[in-house]
Amino acid sequence: MLGAKLDTIPGGKWELSHTQIDLSDIGKQLFRTNNEKLRLHQMHQDHVVEPPSSKSSDLLRDDQKVHIWGSSEHTAVQGIYIKDRLFTSQGHLGFDEHMVKRQIELRVESGSLKDLDHAEAAKETADIEHDGEVVAGSILRLFHGEDNDIP
After folding, report:
1. Tens of pLDDT, residue by residue, the chain (151 residues)
2. pTM of the model
3. How far, CA to CA in Å, does 81 sit from each of 30, 70, 107, 133, 148?
4. Which residue, of 44, 61, 109, 148, has the greatest Cβ tally within 10 A?
């Protein structure tokens, strides 16, 4: 997206199910929290290696700031924010326990997820409460122009 550099995590390791995300200062502002962490369900091997910039896309101005709002042990760029323009999330804010477990089962059955211990451990965390509604609220505020105080 916008020339961001993407790649698969070395070794093909998956980020699955309930994941704690470390919030940046911008992330705390977006999610209107003082908490250091946010929790979302994940289901991916790929990640953003280098966020987009005016050098990677002529759709971004030189003065347009691209902020990384959070990171995890697995994924350095959990999402980006561009004021009045864009919000992305690596996590799946709409996933529930049943969806996560089914997605893991499908990936195991297809052979794309080979680490069965990791898959079982991820299914065990699928029912833990996550912050999908908090993230959805942030997206709605972006669409309504309610985050104009964020750089």
Report:
1. 688 888 988 778 899 999 999 999 999 999 999 999 999 999 999 989 889 999 999 999 999 999 999 999 999 999 999 998 899 999 999 999 999 999 999 999 999 999 999 999 999 999 999 999 999 999 999 989 888 888 7
2. 0.90
3. 9, 10, 30, 17, 12
4. 44
Residue listed under structure tokens 């990171």: 71
